[in-house]
Design goal:
heterotrimer, A mainly alpha (291), B alpha/beta (346), C mainly alpha (305), A: mainly alpha, C: mainly alpha, 12 helices
Amino acid sequence: MSATAAAVPAETTSRRSAWTLLKATGPAGIAAAVIILLATLVAIFGPLLAPYDPTLSDLSLSWVAPTGGHLLGFDGQGRDLLSRLLVGARTSILGPLAVVILCMTAGTIIAVTAAWRRGAVDAAISSGIDIMFAFPGILLAVLAASVFGAGLLAAAVALAIAYTPYVARVLRGAALKERSQQYVSALEVQGASATSICMRHLVPNMFPLIVAQSTILFGYAMVDLAAISFLGLGVQPPNPDWGVMISENQSGIVQGYPLSALLPGLCIVLVVVAFNVLGERLFEQAQKARQ
Amino acid sequence: MSASPAGATTTWGVRPNAPLLEVEGLTVRLPVEGSLRDVLRDVTFGIRPGEALGLVGESGSGKSMTARAIDRLLPEGALVEGAVRFEGGDVGSLAGGDLRTYRGRVAMIFQDPRAHVNPVRRIGDFMTEALRTNQGVPTSTAERRAVHMLAQVGIEDGARRLRQYPHELSGGLLQRVMIAAALLTEPRLLLADEPTTALDVTTQAEVMAILNDLRREFDLAMLFITHDLELAAAICDRTVVMYAGQIVEVRSASLLHGDPLHPYTAALAAARPDIGRTARRLRAIPGRPLSAFEAPPGECAFAPRCPHVADECRRGVPGIVELDGGRSRCVRAKELRGKLGVADDG
Amino acid sequence: MLLASLLVASFVIFAAMYLAPGNPIAALTGGRSIPPDSIKILEARYHLNEPFLVQYWYWLKNVLHGNLGISITLRENVSTLIASRIWTTAGLVLYASIIILLIGIGLGVVSGLRTGPFDTSTLVVTAVSAAIPAFVAAIFLILVFAVKLGWFPALGNGTSFLDNVRHFTLPAFALAVSSLAIVARVTRASVREEAGREHVQTAVSRGIPTRQVVRRHILRNAAIPVTTISGITVASLIALAAVVEVAFSLNGLGAFLVGSAQSKDLAVVQGISLVLVTAFVVVNVLVDVLYAVLDPRVSLGSRAE
């Protein structure tokens, strides 16, 4: 990025580059993006799309195979499987979204602060980042559950805290590189404040990397949150979260009714694959943009 | 068509005139993003035993590719036409043990020593690997020879150096190690691909001196690749100039600067600032150096940038003209004879 | 540096008592009501009437002496409870690590050294399996190999050592699936990158036979990033094992941890968390040591990012 880039308002650069970024990820990336879009729509409109009440339970219909208007049959508690899947998308997808927003924000702030101040502040923050690495996400979530009680909020916050050091480390490198660009000193000399330079130029120029990192992180968050719900420490039954559904219907497998446990699993895998594929390709684009 | 040029002007005593290395009509195409790109076009030259041949050109001229073709280091999928012969035998058809033997007789040293030496293995391992693997020399003997060779390149505490890792040595030292390692297999021909470009000027001079001395001592033939015409003139007997994947001039090194046979060589010589001359302005060649695949088809590759260009230059790719002991790929070579020399600016 | 991590982690684990709504007593009892005598015992053991940092000091001292407190639900020493379960978890993690290293690295090396259909299919397979969380893999494996094919049992620890291995196979694979994919991908990328490096060209130009070039220059150098990712992956297994233990009803630390979290038995949760975090740090230290051994350019304690 030469000094001429500073002449172009950073906001325009970000908007244009979002679309070009996507196009550059190739057919696999675009397919992944489509899947993600569909999943997001289902997450938002799930309850409206669901043909039946996902919590309506009729034990006499336990494990019944797909019949009549029930495209996917019933789960172990006699509830319509399709409806539960559609509504379950909400927590399964919005949960990780919250995690990603939290830790990307925190991570960006930490990384940019460390990169901007450099010197002792950077050293202190870097050490802090290294130290915090010792806590695996799931462990922190379990700890949070035992203190605050099981629930999505505690789990999501715990995961966000656990991921933040990793994000901060990745972003710090890029932030340092941006910091040492010439346009930054040019702006400083002109009297622009640190906050305004960071917000209007530094961070937007890291945009490709931030987007790529968020996408990859979403996959991790989704897997971890679903695992926590599976363990009974996240989303609680009877909420139709996909992780919860797997745990509830696991007994069906040995009894010969695998569908209600398998399908939520498949949904998770599909969405996570999409995020991984898109994230990887975005990451490649971000690397290219930095060179 | 034999590739040995007539009438070399050196007199080192009786030398067999049979060439050590013959390159004949070498054409190389590389697959890039689905299509085949020309990299070398009809390259022909020879090197006699003990002779130092300079290969000069700018980036994209194909000089490195030529060395790689000779050493069978071309990337996968490369299409090669023409022939490379070493001591009479065809190099292209060598395989297995024969190829390994060939690699022992032709050694190559590279431009950036730090990238070309494995950073996780010790210097001793690096130097003796070829000896131990290909010639079955026991480690102690190989190390003794390595220490001796290190002394020859000016590194006195060889035994200590052998235990060190590459990152503990400076660039200049590492390049000397690379030279010493290359000479351990007692090659007949040394391919030196810009060995001093990555070094600072003082170290450059040292390494050049070492190369020169060793070459004479071991009676080595050398192909010295560089973008610097004067550097080539300093230690080579003859110089080959390349442009856009083709040879444009072959000339005895001492004559090349003052009496070039091709406008490109003249331009190269004139563009280099000379501390002994006063110039009012540095003469740059307009435009940029072309690679072989960028050259306009059906005409002289240098035509777009040549100060002496004429209509006949655009009528076809020029052939080689033999002149006064040298060769030139300029259609107007005979006309421009004597007028291409370096004159004072102004 | 990692010791500092451990210290900070232990502090966080300890401080969890105070983060809960209500007082530490409530956190320790999980909201249960207990007789006043028991409350006094708790106060004494945790030195709850002293300043915060002093409490931490006493707690830490106890921990280092192997005293991890008493489980409020099972009325036994936490240390004893942990000791009886630790081998299950350790065995599971070990089994899964072997699978990951053998298959993951093996796959990565083979597909890194060649191009073509094998490589492309590896990429696709790893892309998908990287997205399969351990518990999804678990139910799939149970369905196919336990229920349909009946090759392996679906639940439980098993009795003898060999029986253990049989019982642990499906869980180990479930645990290994997604990590295996990541290791394979990184290995493949590293091998690819090393194969394209200039020093490999130097070796080739000196006539070193291909097999030796691959072994001594490509693989040896690629071992550096591969070791790092393998270490990170194995370390992550430590926490992930909990999910698999629950899915397969294995009597390990992870399952115990989850159960204790649900019943709000804080002392147990703290104890197990400490053990797991320590294991995590130890693995990371080992990786650092290995890294310094493999790469002479690096001094101990620093790991390139």
